[in-house]
Design brief:
The chain is α/β, with parallel strands linked by helices. It contains twelve helices and twelve strands. Strand 9 and strand 10 form a beta hairpin. It binds pyridoxal-5'-phosphate (PLP). Pyridoxal-5'-phosphate binds next to helix 3.
Length: about 375
């Protein structure tokens, strides 16, 4: 029998100062009828893909005693071929989600005494990557319509003197696109590392109209993508970047040895072989969110024009109450972005119908209450 010591609470441990009081990232993971809160593709892989994924697992199980390919060359070659733009494996880096790609970039180009600049409102994870890599995080506001032009970006660079400039297009959580011409003007005017996060590029009206096309001209440009959203592979955890070979070499220095498991590499390669099937629902999801934006406006709400598979709608005096009322009806959306707004992802037609019905009820109750406060239900 061993006597276990009493559990030591986090508050009693010598945690790094900047982590004291911090909470782990956590969009709620709830098993409800309509999960529309993390911008996933709601469609599972088809039967042929499932069979091929299973076969790949059986095959790699035979070599499980060995470390995986550190350089993930097979996968990087497949990603280059999938992207096009004349790219080869030397131009591609891959990691466990584009989350990890971004951490590699900051480990290589950020760090103590260095600065990351982004444009708010934007992705809530960026400040966490900066904190974890000891990189100073500074922001400049987008305009009233959440757009971004080169004058704003260049003025922010002058003001903050960043080492890494991060531009998200389409931006999360607003869905706003920054044109390639703006990225081009910025790359021409600065030699700092310019990272373009294109996590939702496949959902835009012209997906080929990407900053990838600028890569041959700018060695300090990095374009990141993920298989988590349009590609319907969030569970596989695979993100990647395209850039000049210098950027890829920098990431190879800072990555943990064998960071990408054999399963991740093999399953992502299978998914890429089935790219047509994995991406088959993208047009439908794009249409879904276009229709939804029109419906939300018709319902009298303010909607931020989005080219991604989600949109921001509001504005609510008490957005948390609306979020909760939707959840009570089995619909999970995201409480994020500017004050008074909620974000909803494109789902299946059935999920969209659930969302419309639930929001219709909530708005009706809200209106009734505003017109006659005495009718308010139990609080
Ligand atoms: C979802 C998302 C990512 C990618 O996430 P991973 O699953 O780690 O690839 C990256 N950037 C933005 C803006 C996102 O919304």
């Amino acid at each position: 029998m061993t006597d276990l010591p009493p559990p030591v609470r986090l508050a009693d441990l010598p945690l790094r100062d900047e982590l004291v009081g911090e909470q782990p990232y956590g969009a709620p993971q709830l098993d409800v009828a309509a999960r529309l809160n993390v911008n996933e593709n709601p469609y599972p892989p088809d039967d042929q893909v499932i069979a091929d994924l299973a076969r790949a697992v059986t095959q790699l199980a035979r070599g499980m005693n060995r470390y995986p390919d550190r350089e993930a060359l097979g996968l990087r070659t497949a990603l280059a071929k999938y992207l096009g733009y004349g790219l080869s494996a030397d131009n591609i880096w891959a990691a466990n989600g584009s989350n990890e790609v971004m951490v590699h970039l900051l480990q290589a180009f950020g760090g103590p005494g260095r600065t990351l600049l982004s444009f708010t409102p934007t992705y809530s994870m960026y400040p966490e990557y900066a904190r974890n890599t000891h990189t100073r995080y500074v922001t400049t506001k987008r305009d009233a319509a959440f757009r971004l032009d080169s004058a704003t970006i260049l003025a922010a660079i002058d003001e903050h003197d960043p080492d890494v400039v991060l531009i998200t297009t389409p931006n999360n959580p607003t869905g706003t696109v920054t044109p390639v011409s703006v990225i081009e003007e910025v790359c021409e005017a600065t030699r700092r590392i310019v990272v373009v996060d294109e996590a939702y590029q496949e959902f835009t009206e012209f997906p080929q109209d990407s900053s990838m096309a600028l890569l041959p001209r700018f060695g300090h440009l990095v374009v990141t993508r993920t298989m988590s959203k349009a590609f319907a592979f969030a569970g596989g955890r695979l993100g990647y970047l395209a850039a000049g070979p210098g950027v890829v070499d920098a990431c190879r220095i800072v990555r943990l040895p064998y960071h990408l498991s054999a399963q991740t590499q093999a399953l992502a390669e299978v998914a890429l072989r089935h790219a047509g099937s994995m991406l088959a629902r993208v047009d439908q999801l794009r249409d879904e969110i276009v229709d939804l934006q029109a419906w939300l406006r018709h319902a009298g709400l303010d909607v931020v024009p989005s080219e991604a598979n989600f949109c921001l709608f509001g504005r609510f005096a008490d957005r948390h109450a609306v979020w909760q009322a939707l959840l009570d009806r089995g619909v999970l959306v995201r409480e994020t972005g500017p004050q008074g707004y909620l974000r909803v992802s494109a789902g299946t037609p059935a999920e969209m119908q659930l969302f419309r019905t639930a929001l219709g009820e909530v708005l009706h109750d809200e209106l009734a209450e505003r017109l006659d406060p005495t009718t308010s239900k139990e609080s």
